[in-house]
Each structure stands twice: as structure tokens, then as C-alpha cells.
Amino acid sequence: MQLPRRGLICLVALVLAGCGGGVEDAPTLVSATGKVTYKDAPVAGASVTFIIDGSPIANGSTDSEGKFVMSTGGRPGVAIGTAKVGIVKVAAAAEDRSKMTPADMAKMAAASNMKSMAAPKAEIPEKYASPDKSALTAIIDADGTKNVFEFRLVD
After folding, report:
1. φ, ψ for residue 116 (rounded to 5)?
2. CATH number of the domain that 78 lies in?
């Protein structure tokens, strides 16, 4: 049964490879940078997403000063157009659980009555998370020097 599975995997890989999407098909990208603040303080470790109709999604992450640089598909920059913007930041876990044994996790969960195992909480209002619902936009100009955005988030 291994041979048919491998054959199927190879066939899928060949089909996907022949579906275009090469660099020559990619849109022209221009520089886009910015800063995210919440309650007038820089937001570090947030994910910023730009969605422009008909173009690949662009992403960036904020540094300790709240600054970000956008990239699209691993290439620097974003497509030209009006972008819907989403910004997400979740609280970091109090401790690194990736190195804990299952027994340690069970002890911790029992001791805290499972409260510490809850999903991380958003550190900025959730209304900014969805580009379709955030009301944040960015107009991306062909002149990349004009694409510097400041998103001042409020409650």
C-alpha cells in the first residue's frame, strides 16, 4: 500500500508545481512600514496583517518599539492598493510549557484547577484582530517612501 500513497503524493506535487505562482506571476511589491501603539504605548510582539483584494496577504511583526516591516510571501513589501488591516497580540504564557513532562503538566493543572491551562488572552482589543472588521485601513502607494503607517489603538 506504500507505493500508491507515494505515487499519489508525487502526482499532487507535480500538479501543484505546474499551477503557476512563480515570482514572475507575483505582484509588484513596495515598502510598507509602521508603528502600533495601544493607550499611547508601543505594542511589542503583535502580528500585523494587510489584505488587499486580488493580492497575496502581507504580514509583519512589531518589535519592542511597536515598529513593523511588512512582507508578502517571504518577500519584503506589499502590493499596491487599499489594504484592510488586522492587528493581534496575545499574552505570553507565564512559563515555557514546551519542556514540561506530562506529569508536571498534570500536577500544575490539578493545583490550579485548570485555570492556568486556559487560552492566552488578547492584550489589545479583539475588535482589531480581523482585517474585515477592524475598520483599520492602509492605502499603499506606488512610492514606497509614502507607506509609513501609525495605528493608534484604543479601547
Report:
1. -75, -10
2. 2.60.40.10
Look at the chain and report how many structural domains it folds into.
1
Q: How far apart are CA 138 and CA 149, in angstroms?
A: 7
Q: Is 61 helix (H, G, I), strand (E, B) or coil?
A: strand
Q: How far apart are CA 79 and CA 35, in angstroms?
A: 19
Residue at 149 is within a domain: yes
Single pTM value for the model: 0.69
pLDDT 10s digits, 95-127: 555 566 776 666 666 666 555 555 667 899 999
Has residue 2 been placed in a domain?
A: no
Q: Which H helix or E strand runs over 136?
A: strand 136-140
Q: How far is CA 69 from CA 19, 33, 90, 121, 151, in A?
A: 29, 4, 19, 25, 13
105 belongs to a structural domain: no
Residue 133: give the domain boundaries.
Answer: 27-89+124-153
CB neighbour class for 37 (10 Å; exposed up to 12, middle 13-18, buried from 19): middle
Q: Is residue 99 part of a domain?
A: no
Rounded distance between C-alpha atoms, residue 77 and residue 75, angstroms: 6
What secondary structure does DSSP assign to 90-124, as a single string? Answer: BPPPSS-GGG--HHHHHHHHHHHTTGGGSPPPBSS
